[in-house]
Amino acid sequence: MTNDHFPDLKAFLDEKVLKYNQPFFIETDPIQVPKNFSGKENIEIAAFLTATIAWGNRLSIIKNATKLMTLMDNQPHDFVINASASDIKNLNHFVHRTFNGSDCIFFIRSLRNIYVKYGGLQYLFESGFQKDESVKSALTGFYNSFFEIGGERSRKHVSNVENGASAKRLNMFLRWMVRSDKNDVDFGLWDGIPPSALMLPLDVHTGNVGRKLGLLQRKTNDWKAVEEVTQSLRKFDSADPVKYDFALFGLGVFERF
Q1: How far apart are CA 170 and CA 178, in angstroms?
Q2: Which of 13, 24, 190, 231 is 20 to 30 A from 82 (CA-CA)?
Q3: 97: left (phi > 0), else alpha (psi -120 to 50), else beta?
C-alpha cells in the first residue's frame, strides 16, 4: 500500500463499511443468534458458543447455534451455572462438523469454571489485556484458563495465538463484545478493552480481499498475517481498525471481489 493510493483506498473502504455495517447484516450472519438474548451474561455466552462453531456454511452455523441454545433451554447463563449432570448429558448428541457432544460438554464445564472462579468471560479477557497493546495477551490468558480443567481433545476448537493461530473466531467474538457504534450490529457490552486494541478476524475472504487491496503481503492466514493486516487498517482508523472487517468481508462474500 503506497501513500499515493492511501486516500482513495480509505474512501473506498469507508464507503463499504457504511454499506455493510448495517442492521441487514445481522440477517445472514451468526451474530443473529446472540441478538436473540438480553442480559450481558446470556449474550456473551451465546456469542462465545456461536463464534466457537462459526466455520463452514453460515446457514449451518446459525442453525446449529440456534439448536445449541435450545438444548440450553434458551437460558445460556443459567444453564452454564446451574445445569445438572443429566441436563449437560443432553448435549452429547450435539454436533457441528468436528465439534461434537463431548466438546460441547467440556465447553459448558469450562465456562462454569470461568464464571464461578473468575467472574465470567468479560473479567477473564479484560484482566488478561495489557494496556496499550493488542488483545494477544488477553487471548493467551483466556486459552490457558479455558483449559485449566483439562479438555485435551477440545484444544483444537480454541485458537492458541502463542502457536501462531489467527484466532479468527475469538477475534470475531471480541469484535462483537467490544465494538459499539450507532448502527448496533456489534454489542459493545465490554468497556475494559478499547476497540483500538482489537485484531481483524482474518479468514479466507478477508485475507484474499486484503491481499488484492495491498493491505496484506503474507500468504498464510496466521497470527503474523493478522498483525500485518490490522496494522494496515489502523492507518485508516487507529481508534477502530476492525470496523473494516465489514468492508473486507462484504467485498469478499457479497461482491465476490
Answers
A1: 12
A2: 190
A3: left
Q: Residue type for 169, please?
A: R
Least Cα distance to 180 among 204, 196, 166 occurs for: 196
pLDDT of residue 4: 53
**Residue-level pLDDT at 169:** 98
For residue 10, the tally of other CB atoms under 10 A from its CB is 15
Residue 33 CA, distance from chain mean position? 13
Would you tell me how many other CB atoms lie within 10 Å of the CB of residue 123? 14
Percentage of the chain beyond pLDDT 70 is: 98
Strands (E), the chain: none
What are the two backbone dihedrals, phi and then psi, of residue 98, each rounded to the nearest 5 degrees? -95, 0
Task: Give the span between the Cα atoms of 140 and 108, in whole angstroms.
Answer: 20
Output helix, strand, coil percentages for the chain, rounded to the nearest 5. Answer: 65, 0, 35
The burial class, CB within 10 Å (0-12 / 13-18 / 19+), for 200 is buried
Yes or no: say if 223 and 164 are a contact pair by the CB < 8 Å rule.
yes
C-beta separation of 215 from 233 below 8 A: yes
Burial of residue 238 (CB within 10 Å: 0-12, 13-18, 19+) is exposed
Low-confidence ranges of the chain (pLDDT < 50): 1-3
Considering just the CA atoms, what is the radius of gyration of the chain in Å? 18
Please give the pLDDT value at position 132. Answer: 77
Query: E strands of 1-100, at which residues?
Result: none
Q: What is the pLDDT of residue 69?
A: 98
Q: What letter represents residue 118's amino acid?
A: Y
